[in-house]
Amino acid sequence: MAAAEPARPRRASSRPVGEGAEQDTNARRRAKSRRRSGTPGAAAAMRAAAEQLAELLGNFPDSVSSLKPTEDGWVAQVEVVELERIPDTTSVMASYRVALDEDGELISYERTRRYSRGMIDRLT
Question: What's the whole-model pTM score?
Fold first, then answer.
């Protein structure tokens, strides 16, 4: 058995003291008020986006690649296998933008991109 690694010290923030602290505090307050008001948290919103989109498309999502809170709920980017192929790196994937209301109900979705699973985004 390998010896356990010693705990690593936390890195200090690279931003100056006070900068961004107000934004962090406001974000935490919004998240807490959301949970109190019955609005789902991030994990519940992510599950809701995937499950409801699966019900509409008939394909269960492969992953949720982003999730952002909005004034009215959440916006998620959900990746779905649209056409399964062999090898799986040639499968056709689609990325959907999914909007959820404050209760976690899907209010809209839009396919924003289609690509093969093996395709890597390149910086230009």
Answer: 0.66
